[in-house]
Specification:
about 190 residues, alpha+beta, 8 strands
């Protein structure tokens, strides 16, 4: 069994795909991220809710930004940009207890970029980083059962639905059911 690799400090190189450049978020991304989360349709299924002020957004992104300077990283968040450096959204990976060699992914895109495969492309690259660079064994994602767009993305990247938790997500004053998805390192190798 391979040991999980620790990444220390900010990543020196971005993660790249054919069309996208994923760079760890910085404070200069604050306004773009705040605007992104002001779209009600972007955060329709977000348990955090829509940040009312830029200070609310600052608090949300403080964790992954400050984590860049820890000896043992546990939170990664990248800005998603096209090759012209247009900010399109974010994608992240939060690591769990090292002995489980697992993490959880998340993503958000501006609605005008939906339906073009950008979420799928960026998520595949983050999963590749998780399995190949961090030596993770398992990557998970949670999704509200009514979030059909995200369900399609998770299934396109090879994740499998593992279960349903009833009324676990607090979204807009209601308790909503959640599907659990995951992919194992051997699933990626065999596909």
């Amino acid at each position: 069994m391979r040991q999980r690799v620790n990444v220390t400090g900010p990543m020196k190189k971005p993660l790249e795909t054919e069309r996208l450049v994923l760079t760890e978020i910085r404070w200069v991304d604050l306004k773009g991220i705040h605007r992104l989360h002001k779209f009600a349709e972007v955060d329709e299924f977000n348990t955090v809710g829509i940040p009312e002020t830029i200070d609310d957004t600052r608090k949300l992104i403080r964790v992954p930004i400050m984590d860049q300077f820890k000896k043992q990283r546990s939170a990664f968040c990248w800005s998603i940009r096209d090759r012209k450096s247009t900010f399109m959204g974010t994608v992240g990976l939060n690591l769990k207890d090292p002995r489980y060699k697992s993490g959880e992914v998340y993503y958000s895109l501006y609605p005008k970029y939906w339906g073009n495969g950008y979420a799928t492309e960026s998520l595949k690259r983050v999963m590749q980083f998780g399995f190949q660079t961090l030596n993770l064994h398992r990557i998970e994602a949670g999704v509200a059962v009514e979030n059909t767009r995200s369900i399609r993305v998770l299934e396109k990247v090879g994740m499998q639905r593992e279960g349903r938790a009833r009324k676990i997500l607090p979204i807009r004053g209601n308790w909503v059911d959640n599907f659990s998805y995951a992919i194992l390192e051997e699933d990626l190798i065999s596909s």
